[in-house]
From TrEMBL:
Its cofactor is Mg(2+). Transmembrane segments: none annotated. Its EC number is 1.1.1.133. This is dTDP-4-dehydrorhamnose reductase. Belongs to the dTDP-4-dehydrorhamnose reductase family. PANTHER family: DTDP-4-DEHYDRORHAMNOSE REDUCTASE, METHIONINE ADENOSYLTRANSFERASE 2 SUBUNIT BETA. It holds the Pfam family RmlD_sub_bind. It comes from the Bacteria.
Length: 294
């Protein structure tokens, strides 16, 4: 890798997966520690003026964007301002910017898979924040790659998987939507995708724009939950047995979570040669890592 790579958010689950995968291929990252109050416009300005990397992977707010149960509007607004400043700095210093986003920019009304050409109409606070961030990156930094991921699964304490497994240990029955669909995406697979994109950018290939990636085989929340528990029972014996279907509209997060969130991944395949991997194959390693740290 000829490019000097900077990773904001090297301490979170996706950042750690990217560092692990990079180390296997002798690819290293500058991964500065964030200030105590987190990255903001001033600290990002100082950082990039001092370091001038060739490419930057922005996972600084990964947990809030992909794993947190709830995040307030003011926090998202501050993050959007910081990302806008980051995009300005990348444009000024000619740094390639790789920015993650999410299926949440869509409203979930489309029963077929969403391509990159579909209109973004986010319904929830998180989706609206991510859409604003996408727009600011596009307007400010032409040399960007935006990757919208499907349902990201990781081993974060208090993340989506962690909260689900905690419920599975304490509740008598779990209810999951059997009419909500998406692409589960283990965090190691997401890291593989990011690294593959960086390798091609290292070849000076100008493949800027927006791409979708999700694990192979779209599924329902119910089927995903059953698959996770099937693997988790190999490691824990006190997990709930009853996993029951419930309508998306009856779920407490129906106003925030798109019902149909399947992403079409043809563009990333044709442009970068990145093939979707089966999400089920990534569950054993993910759950093993999760239970080793709880």
């Amino acid at each position: 890798m000829r490019m000097r790579l900077m990773l904001l958010g090297g301490g979170n689950s996706l950042g750690q997966a990217l560092i692990r995968l990079g180390a296997e291929e002798d690819i290293g990252f500058l991964a500065p520690r964030p200030p105590e109050s987190g990255w903001d416009a001033a600290s990002l300005t100082q950082l990039l003026d001092d370091t001038r990397p060739d490419a930057l992977i922005n996972l600084a707010y990964y947990f809030d964007w992909f794993q947190a149960e709830a995040v307030g509007a003011a926090r998202f607004d501050a993050q959007a301002l910081a990302v806008e400043r980051l995009a300005e700095l990348c444009q000024h210093h000619e740094i390639r910017l790789l920015q993650p986003s999410s299926y949440r920019v869509f409203d979930g009304s489309r029963a077929t898979a969403y391509s990159e050409k579909e209109e973004a109409v986010p319904i929830g606070l998180r989706g609206q924040a991510l859409w604003r961030i996408e727009q600011r990156v596009r307007a400010t930094c032409p040399k960007h790659v935006l990757v919208r991921f499907g349902w990201l699964l990781d081993d974060s304490p208090q993340g989506l998987l962690s909260r689900f497994l905690a419920r599975a240990e304490r509740e008598q029955a779990l209810y999951l939507a059997d009419d909500r669909r998406g692409n589960p995406t283990p965090v190691d697979d997401a890291a593989r995708v990011i690294l593959a994109i960086l390798k091609q950018l290292d070849c000076e290939t100008p493949l800027w724009g927006t791409y979708h990636y999700g694990g192979h085989e779209a599924t329902t929340s119910l089927a995903l939950g059953q698959a996770i528990l099937g693997e988790a029972r190999q490691l824990r014996g006190n997990l709930v047995e009853d996993v029951l279907p419930q309508a998306h509209a009856a779920r407490p997060d129906a106003a925030e979570e798109p019902q149909h969130a399947v992403l079409a991944c043809k563009k990333i395949l044709h442009t970068f040669g990145i093939k979707p991997r089966a999400w089920r194959a990534g569950l054993p390693a993910l759950l093993d890592r999760y239970y080793r740290h709880v």
